[in-house]
Amino acid sequence: xxxxxxxxxxxxxxxxxxxxxxxxxxxxxxxxxxxxxxxxxxxxxxxxxxxxxxxxxxxxxxxxxxxxxxxxxxxxxxxxxxxxxxxxxxxxxxxxxxxxxxxxxxxxxxxxxxxxxxxxxxxxxxxxxxxxxxxxxxxxxxxxxxxxxxxxxxxxxxxxxxxxxxxxxxxxxxxxxxxxxxxxxxxxxxxxxxxxxxxxxxxxxxxxxxxxxxxxxxxxxxxxxxxxxxxxxxxxxxxxxxxxxxxxxxxxxxxxxxxxxxxxxxxxxxxxxxxxxxxxxxxxxxxxxxxxxxxxxxxxxxxxxxxxxxxxx
Length: 313
Ligand SMILES: Nc1ncnc2c1ncn2[C@@H]1O[C@H](COP(=O)(O)OP(=O)(O)O)[C@@H](O)[C@H]1O
Ligand SMILES: [Mg+2]
Hints:
Rossmann fold; 34% helix; eight-stranded mixed sheet; binds adenosine-5'-diphosphate; 13% strand; 313 residues
C-alpha cells in the first residue's frame, strides 16, 4: 500500500471510534501527465456495479428560483478553456485521465444510492495538489450525462483558478454574493457545455475567511440546490486556512485530493482532521503514472481494494 494511503487509512481508523468519524468511502488515483505510483494495494480487485442512470434528476424547483429564470438570466459567455487542464472540452473522450474521472463519477453515484450526496467539496492539504483540476474535470464528466445539471463553484477566494481553466471572467462571482452586492443570478454564468453552470470567485477580498463564514454561502446553496443534480465546490487548501472546513459544513461530502509523491503524510492527516464531522466520500490520488498501468482497468480496480467493508456508506 502506498505510504499516503496507509497513513490516511490509519488516521481514519484511529479517529473512527473516538470521534465517530467515517473512513473514506473510496479512493481513486489518476493523472494524465504526472509521474509515479499506482499504490500496490489497488491493483487487483473488481469494480462494483453502479447505476448512474438510476440517480434522480433535478426537477423540483424552489419557490423563488426556477431553472427557466436561471437560463434567462445567467449570461452565456464565450469560454476559452485551457485544453491541458480541461480534459473533456475538446470532445476527446479517451484522453489520459478521462477514464479515471468517469470512474470517480461512478463511485459518487454508487455512494449516492445510500446517502444524500449532491454538494461535494473538493479539497486537499496544501496548494497545487490538484483541487481545481479535479473539481473542473469532475464537473465536466458529471454534466456529460444526458440531462444532468451541474454547478461548479470556485470557493477559493484567495487563489482562484477555475476561471482560468475555463477561460472566462472571474467576476462577478461568489465574493460579490457574500458581500451582498450581487444576487445568485448575476454571479452564475454558462459557456458552451450544456447544463454546466459556473460561479467564479468574484472580486478579490481582503477578508476571505470572514466572508466565507458569514452564513450567506449556506443560503446560496440552499437556494440553488433544487436546480442542480450536482454542485461541485473547489476550495482553498485545508491546512493553512480555515475556509475549507467552513465550506465543508455546508456540503454533503468531501473529496480529498492527495498528490502522489508530494503531499507529506502528516499534512494529509492534518487536512483530514479539519473535517471531523463531515463525510469523507473519497480520496483522489493525483499524479500517478499511467505508464506503469497497462490498462485503465487498473484504475477501476483502484477504487475497490481500498473500499474496506466498514467504510462503505
Ligand atoms: N493530474 C494532472 N494532470 C495534469 N495537470 C494537472 C494535474 N493535476 C494538477 N494539474 C495542474 O497543476 C496545476 C496545479 O493544480 P491545481 O488544480 O490548480 O491545484 P490546487 O487547486 O490544489 O492549488 C494546474 O496547472 C493544474 O492544471
Ligand atoms: Mg485551486
